[in-house]
Amino acid sequence: MTPTQLYANPEDLKANPWNTNQMSPENEAKLDTAIRRMGMFKPIVVRETDDGFQILGGEHRRDAAIRLGIKEVPVISVGRIDDVRAKEISLADNARYGSDDIMGLAHLLDGLGVSQDDLESFLPYTDTDLDSIMSSVNIDVDALDYDESEAPSDTSPTDTSEKTAKTHVVMRFKVAIGDSERVSKLIQSIQTEQGFTEADALTNAGDALVHALLGASDDA
Fold this sequence. Notes:
Chromosome partitioning protein ParB; 3 domains
Protein backbone atom coordinates (compact mmCIF):
# COMPACT_ATOMS: atom_id res chain seq x y z
CA MET A 1 0.00 0.00 0.00
CA THR A 2 1.59 3.23 -1.18
CA PRO A 3 -0.46 6.35 -0.37
CA THR A 4 -0.78 8.91 -3.13
CA GLN A 5 -1.60 12.58 -2.70
CA LEU A 6 -3.96 14.23 -5.18
CA TYR A 7 -6.85 16.68 -5.46
CA ALA A 8 -10.46 15.79 -6.28
CA ASN A 9 -13.93 17.27 -6.47
CA PRO A 10 -15.60 16.49 -3.11
CA GLU A 11 -18.79 15.50 -4.91
CA ASP A 12 -16.87 12.65 -6.56
CA LEU A 13 -15.90 11.12 -3.18
CA LYS A 14 -18.34 8.45 -2.00
CA ALA A 15 -19.12 7.77 1.65
CA ASN A 16 -18.52 4.29 3.02
CA PRO A 17 -21.49 2.35 4.51
CA TRP A 18 -19.89 1.61 7.90
CA ASN A 19 -18.92 5.05 9.23
CA THR A 20 -20.06 5.37 12.86
CA ASN A 21 -18.75 8.90 13.41
CA GLN A 22 -21.76 11.18 13.84
CA MET A 23 -21.72 14.98 14.03
CA SER A 24 -24.31 17.33 15.50
CA PRO A 25 -25.60 20.31 13.50
CA GLU A 26 -23.79 22.58 15.97
CA ASN A 27 -20.44 20.93 15.28
CA GLU A 28 -21.15 20.92 11.54
CA ALA A 29 -21.40 24.71 11.78
CA LYS A 30 -18.12 24.82 13.74
CA LEU A 31 -16.43 22.67 11.09
CA ASP A 32 -17.68 24.97 8.34
CA THR A 33 -16.27 27.95 10.24
CA ALA A 34 -12.95 26.17 10.77
CA ILE A 35 -12.60 25.42 7.05
CA ARG A 36 -13.53 28.97 6.09
CA ARG A 37 -10.98 30.23 8.61
CA MET A 38 -8.07 27.87 7.89
CA GLY A 39 -8.87 26.08 4.65
CA MET A 40 -8.85 22.32 3.94
CA PHE A 41 -5.59 21.70 5.77
CA LYS A 42 -6.33 18.01 6.46
CA PRO A 43 -6.63 15.65 3.47
CA ILE A 44 -9.54 13.26 3.04
CA VAL A 45 -8.41 9.61 3.11
CA VAL A 46 -9.86 7.38 0.38
CA ARG A 47 -9.39 4.02 -1.28
CA GLU A 48 -9.84 3.20 -4.94
CA THR A 49 -12.81 1.02 -5.96
CA ASP A 50 -14.44 0.08 -9.25
CA ASP A 51 -16.95 2.89 -8.58
CA GLY A 52 -14.31 5.54 -7.87
CA PHE A 53 -12.93 6.89 -4.61
CA GLN A 54 -14.51 5.73 -1.33
CA ILE A 55 -13.92 7.79 1.81
CA LEU A 56 -12.16 6.07 4.71
CA GLY A 57 -11.57 9.19 6.78
CA GLY A 58 -12.97 12.70 6.39
CA GLU A 59 -16.60 12.26 5.35
CA HIS A 60 -17.64 15.29 7.42
CA ARG A 61 -14.90 17.40 5.83
CA ARG A 62 -16.17 16.27 2.42
CA ASP A 63 -19.71 17.30 3.38
CA ALA A 64 -18.48 20.68 4.67
CA ALA A 65 -16.56 21.31 1.45
CA ILE A 66 -19.72 20.65 -0.57
CA ARG A 67 -21.76 22.97 1.67
CA LEU A 68 -19.13 25.69 1.23
CA GLY A 69 -18.95 25.29 -2.53
CA ILE A 70 -15.33 24.11 -2.58
CA LYS A 71 -14.65 22.35 -5.88
CA GLU A 72 -11.28 20.78 -5.11
CA VAL A 73 -10.03 19.18 -1.89
CA PRO A 74 -6.76 17.47 -0.89
CA VAL A 75 -7.00 13.69 -0.91
CA ILE A 76 -4.75 10.84 0.22
CA SER A 77 -5.50 7.62 -1.67
CA VAL A 78 -4.32 4.34 -0.17
CA GLY A 79 -5.03 2.56 -3.45
CA ARG A 80 -6.95 -0.69 -3.74
CA ILE A 81 -7.29 -2.45 -0.40
CA ASP A 82 -9.74 -5.02 0.96
CA ASP A 83 -12.72 -4.21 3.18
CA VAL A 84 -11.05 -5.33 6.41
CA ARG A 85 -8.05 -3.05 5.96
CA ALA A 86 -10.34 -0.22 4.82
CA LYS A 87 -12.41 -0.52 8.00
CA GLU A 88 -9.26 -0.65 10.13
CA ILE A 89 -8.06 2.59 8.55
CA SER A 90 -11.47 4.20 9.15
CA LEU A 91 -11.41 3.23 12.82
CA ALA A 92 -7.83 4.45 13.29
CA ASP A 93 -8.59 7.72 11.47
CA ASN A 94 -11.58 8.46 13.73
CA ALA A 95 -9.74 7.50 16.93
CA ARG A 96 -7.85 9.88 19.17
CA TYR A 97 -4.91 8.15 20.82
CA GLY A 98 -3.79 10.97 23.09
CA SER A 99 -5.36 13.32 25.60
CA ASP A 100 -4.67 16.96 26.39
CA ASP A 101 -2.63 18.15 29.31
CA ILE A 102 -5.22 20.64 30.58
CA MET A 103 -2.76 23.21 31.91
CA GLY A 104 -0.80 23.05 28.65
CA LEU A 105 -4.00 23.37 26.64
CA ALA A 106 -5.07 26.39 28.70
CA HIS A 107 -1.69 28.03 28.04
CA LEU A 108 -1.99 27.27 24.32
CA LEU A 109 -5.51 28.68 24.00
CA ASP A 110 -4.69 31.76 26.07
CA GLY A 111 -1.57 32.41 23.99
CA LEU A 112 -3.61 32.67 20.79
CA GLY A 113 -5.01 36.00 21.91
CA VAL A 114 -8.44 34.95 20.64
CA SER A 115 -11.67 35.53 22.55
CA GLN A 116 -13.51 32.57 24.05
CA ASP A 117 -16.49 33.22 21.80
CA ASP A 118 -14.20 33.10 18.77
CA LEU A 119 -12.60 29.84 19.92
CA GLU A 120 -16.02 28.31 20.48
CA SER A 121 -17.05 29.23 16.92
CA PHE A 122 -14.56 26.90 15.22
CA LEU A 123 -13.33 24.41 17.84
CA PRO A 124 -15.40 21.44 19.08
CA TYR A 125 -15.69 22.90 22.59
CA THR A 126 -18.75 24.30 24.32
CA ASP A 127 -18.68 27.40 26.49
CA THR A 128 -18.72 25.10 29.52
CA ASP A 129 -15.76 23.12 28.15
CA LEU A 130 -13.69 26.27 27.68
CA ASP A 131 -14.62 27.59 31.13
CA SER A 132 -13.47 24.28 32.61
CA ILE A 133 -10.20 24.32 30.66
CA MET A 134 -9.36 27.90 31.54
CA SER A 135 -10.32 27.41 35.19
CA SER A 136 -7.13 25.35 35.54
CA VAL A 137 -5.34 28.66 36.07
CA ASN A 138 -7.78 30.04 38.64
CA ILE A 139 -5.65 31.50 41.37
CA ASP A 140 -7.90 30.82 44.35
CA VAL A 141 -8.02 27.03 44.15
CA ASP A 142 -5.63 25.54 41.63
CA ALA A 143 -2.70 27.92 41.87
CA LEU A 144 -2.76 27.85 45.67
CA ASP A 145 -3.50 24.13 46.12
CA TYR A 146 -6.47 25.07 48.31
CA ASP A 147 -8.30 22.19 49.95
CA GLU A 148 -11.97 23.12 50.21
CA SER A 149 -12.32 20.74 53.16
CA GLU A 150 -10.27 23.24 55.17
CA ALA A 151 -12.75 26.06 54.65
CA PRO A 152 -14.92 27.02 57.62
CA SER A 153 -18.51 25.98 57.25
CA ASP A 154 -21.08 28.66 56.49
CA THR A 155 -23.77 26.69 58.30
CA SER A 156 -24.40 26.94 62.03
CA PRO A 157 -26.15 24.47 64.31
CA THR A 158 -29.90 25.03 64.39
CA ASP A 159 -29.95 25.15 68.18
CA THR A 160 -27.35 27.92 68.49
CA SER A 161 -28.82 31.08 69.95
CA GLU A 162 -25.93 33.31 68.93
CA LYS A 163 -24.54 33.59 65.38
CA THR A 164 -20.90 34.36 64.70
CA ALA A 165 -20.44 37.53 62.64
CA LYS A 166 -19.28 36.88 59.08
CA THR A 167 -15.81 38.34 58.53
CA HIS A 168 -14.73 37.02 55.12
CA VAL A 169 -16.19 36.36 51.67
CA VAL A 170 -14.87 34.08 48.93
CA MET A 171 -13.75 35.97 45.82
CA ARG A 172 -13.00 34.01 42.63
CA PHE A 173 -10.98 35.61 39.86
CA LYS A 174 -8.51 34.80 37.10
CA VAL A 175 -5.09 36.17 36.26
CA ALA A 176 -3.03 35.91 33.09
CA ILE A 177 -1.39 32.52 32.75
CA GLY A 178 2.05 34.09 32.57
CA ASP A 179 1.49 35.83 35.92
CA SER A 180 -0.21 33.02 37.87
CA GLU A 181 2.96 31.35 39.15
CA ARG A 182 4.51 34.67 40.24
CA VAL A 183 1.34 35.72 42.04
CA SER A 184 1.10 32.36 43.83
CA LYS A 185 4.73 32.55 44.98
CA LEU A 186 4.23 36.14 46.18
CA ILE A 187 1.15 35.19 48.21
CA GLN A 188 2.91 32.18 49.74
CA SER A 189 5.93 34.34 50.62
CA ILE A 190 3.77 36.98 52.32
CA GLN A 191 1.89 34.28 54.24
CA THR A 192 5.20 33.08 55.71
CA GLU A 193 6.69 36.53 56.35
CA GLN A 194 3.57 38.01 57.97
CA GLY A 195 2.46 34.90 59.80
CA PHE A 196 -0.79 34.37 57.91
CA THR A 197 -0.85 30.68 58.82
CA GLU A 198 -3.39 30.29 61.59
CA ALA A 199 -6.66 30.21 59.61
CA ASP A 200 -7.77 27.94 56.78
CA ALA A 201 -5.70 27.96 53.58
CA LEU A 202 -8.02 30.20 51.57
CA THR A 203 -8.33 32.79 54.35
CA ASN A 204 -4.55 32.81 54.81
CA ALA A 205 -4.07 33.41 51.08
CA GLY A 206 -6.70 36.15 51.05
CA ASP A 207 -5.11 37.93 54.03
CA ALA A 208 -1.74 37.80 52.26
CA LEU A 209 -3.23 39.21 49.07
CA VAL A 210 -4.92 42.07 50.95
CA HIS A 211 -1.62 42.82 52.68
CA ALA A 212 0.17 42.95 49.32
CA LEU A 213 -2.43 45.23 47.76
CA LEU A 214 -3.40 47.49 50.67
CA GLY A 215 -0.57 47.19 53.18
CA ALA A 216 1.55 49.99 51.75
CA SER A 217 -1.34 52.47 51.57
CA ASP A 218 -2.47 51.61 55.10
CA ASP A 219 1.05 52.29 56.43
CA ALA A 220 1.28 55.67 54.68
